[in-house]
Sequence to fold (359 residues):
Amino acid sequence: MRNESLTPETVPASLVGLSPPISPVTSRHPRGTLVDKFGRHVTYIRLSITDRCDFRCSYCMAEEMTFLPRAQVLTLEECLRIAGTFVDLGVTKVRVTGGEPLVRHNAIWLLERIAGLSGLKELVITTNGSQLDRFAAALRAAGVRRINVSLDTLRAQRFREITRVGDLAKVLRGLDAAQAAGFERLKLNTVMMRGVNDDELIDLVQFAVDRAIDIAFIEEMPLGDIGHARQSTYFSSEEALALLQTRFVLLPSTETTGGPARYWRIPGTSTRVGFIAPHSHNFCDTCNRVRITARGELYPCLGNNDAGQLLPLLRAYPSDDGPLRAAIVRTLGIKAKGHDFGNQMSTPQVVRFMSVTGG
Fold:
């Protein structure tokens, strides 16, 4: 199966020139920042630096993948230009993703330079943990403040079945290395799947408590055709919360890490338990983020197909960021009011895999 995304022609012609109607009189945000037509302030980007991954997680991609040719992937210098332009436009948080970002050659070089951008407040990374034992110390030295590690099970055989090729022991060594490196926060990301790992949610929270790290449970999202309807494996945040409350006292918290997770505290511990619920608790009204794929597509909404194309502008204007800035602002004009994953569980409307969009 090919790792495909959508071409520029998927953007409706009527929306190509649409810009957000921002007025300095009515906007509460500073001039020069990114505000969409619904008044949402974009301060956070998720930048994928590769579509490649050393795992083949069943909910994320097909088992047999054809990855993008090198010429169609952003260079590291182009990734830096994109990040710098967004920061100039008021973005304060950059999350580097993939695929698996740490399989990208010279990823540390890029992270060091993004961390040095004036105006950036936070550089974070999402990883499957497979390379952390090699790179944890270098990531911390580069300026990465927080790391999210995808971990869906604590059982070695089940881990291999979910990832198809992964080694749980290697990921756990990576967690050890990350904790030793002294990041401000570490968080586990767990995709909840009925009949796959829903019997481990309590164990995963206890694992996080024992390590004094955070954990976030994510409802499975219908992105790409993975060979089965996700209705059969969907597990809601409400079910997870009720299950966890049979073992733990969970107190609601107003804390945020700048993303969509809603957090709960376990008294007597430093662990926060988060829930990312794109189905049961749609968070679109407070969305503050956009995503850039490894081939330079700017997706204002994870759950919609409309995108702006940044790679052609980067290469057509190698020393002029003006057209890039204009395209970013213009693409913000097509940011949807919300997504509707609930009606897409059996037949995904978003054809790209999660590994293409960026985790």
About this structure: The longest strand covers residues 185-192. The two ends are 19 Å apart (CA to CA).
